[in-house]
């Protein structure tokens, strides 16, 4: 009996019945664990050939445990008990889940929003900063590193004693850090960012923060055999089929915790699934919801499958556990095992969807647009279509705004662009996700109001997650972008742009690329953070226009 449970009903169960035999026929599981790069077709081969070492990490990562423990003990001995992690996407999402689940503190700084960066630059006497970047060229992470290095120096603290770098061997960051005398832990270069949970990227910050990372590897190792078996009970094959082989494709995957005991798992799975599958006009959009009472968790919509992350069952679950009146999957198992489970399932989903699950072609387009805008100087942003109090209103991707001149009218115009059967609304808030956290509470109400799945992402964090799907996936999204003037800007040491310039360029660049894909983007810019946010929160909290056709969920 495996520690993992994958139980499905309705179309998700039908998908398992149809697609798992085909995966068995292809010996997908055993070939995956043999790191067979041909599993996703010729075009993907050059990338998949250097992206498959994650199947063995439960064993190959073990030498890191001693090194991390020694580093932690040394730092604790110096009174350093605050761990800050600077990293984006796959370089920070796993440690966030690992530490939250273990109940140990980790400050995750995955933002270029000046107020949020500034809020992390405190308590430096007791702080160690892990700077994690596989490529070593992610501008958010490089900017954060520069800010912390300057802040340590200003306090008379040797940065090389308090900044630990995690990066690929030979990356620009690897070379610069080593020549600068910093401690560097190299990660396995043959693992992509969103599959790197059990590499140094997941283990170093989590171990320094005090999480039991050996148990994590043990839980993953305990299920490696069942996940590599060409067997119709293989939970990885079952989950991959349930996710990606429904017919017609249910491309909204609602992720909701239902007593799993794991904290924040959907936020990690979101990047893995969205960035792996959202390309060539197809893909699966994770819709992270906070409760089984949220609207999408109760709708039997034809484009939705609901995944409930449940507690460990000591009985072998059977398919009648989940509700049979819609497409649902119940998944259970310890965190370490689930990290490997979902990686196998996503790799299988990539084969079933006919795409390469290891590249992220469209993320680059937004980065390039942001760089161009930075070079041009961000002050040239175009005039707003209208200004309503402390909110500037701009509309991209078509003439859909009409005569709207207020925030409520502009929202109605945007929501009017939603395809009633397959559309989704993406809210993208380039704000301080800690200080402004309560804005996310508008999400369920927007789902009730639009009768469509709603995703809520913090910018620029989501750019490394659902951002790929928005640009490379099906053209069914409408986009609401909220940006703000910071309470106070912050310089990026050694750069000609500030954090405020950079985050504005990231938002503008992403909106520009979405508009180039003919997607409607409503940009609400808060000229005064507090007043503007109150206006936007009120408008987004307005009740459903008409009777809630789906009934209150
Ligand atoms: O670890 P890096 O190279 O800084 O990349 C951070 C993230 O950015 C991406 O490369 C693009 O979003 C992700 O795949 C990755 O997890």
Fold-level CATH name of the largest domain: Rossmann fold
- Give every kind of bound small molecule, once each: 6-O-phosphono-beta-D-fructofuranose
Write down the domain tally. Answer: 3
Work out the radius of gyration.
Answer: 23 Å
- Tell me the β content: 15-25%
According to CATH, the homologous superfamily of the largest domain is Glucose-6-phosphate isomerase like protein, domain 1
What would you call the structural class? alpha/beta
Give the % helix. 40-55%
- Main beta-sheet strand count, sense and barrel state: 6 strands, mixed
**CATH-defined architecture of the largest domain:** 3-Layer(aba) Sandwich
Q: Strands across the major sheet, in which order?
A: 11-12-16-15-13-14
Textual characterization of the structure:
The chain folds into three domains: 5-27 and 246-353, Rossmann fold (3-Layer(aba) Sandwich); 61-216, Glucose-6-phosphate isomerase like protein, domain 1 (Rossmann fold); 361-540, 3-Layer(aba) Sandwich (Rossmann fold), CATH 3.40.50. It is globular. Helix 5 (63-77) runs parallel beside helix 11 and helix 14 (235-244) crosses helix 16. It has a six-stranded mixed β-sheet, with helices on both faces. A five-stranded mixed β-sheet has the order 1-10-9-7-8. With 553 residues, the chain is of the alpha/beta class. It has helices spanning 10-25, 28-33, 42-48, 57-60, 63-77, 93-102, 114-120, 139-154, 159-162, 172-179, 200-209, 213-221, 224-227, 235-244, 265-277, 335-353, 363-376, 407-415, 443-450, 466-472, 499-516, 529-540, and strands at 5-9, 82-86, 107-109, 127-133, 163-167, 183-186, 252-258, 285-288, 304-310, 328-332, 386-388, 391-396, 424-429, 454-458, 477-484, 521-526. The protein binds 6-O-phosphono-beta-D-fructofuranose (F6P). 6-O-phosphono-beta-D-fructofuranose binds next to loops.
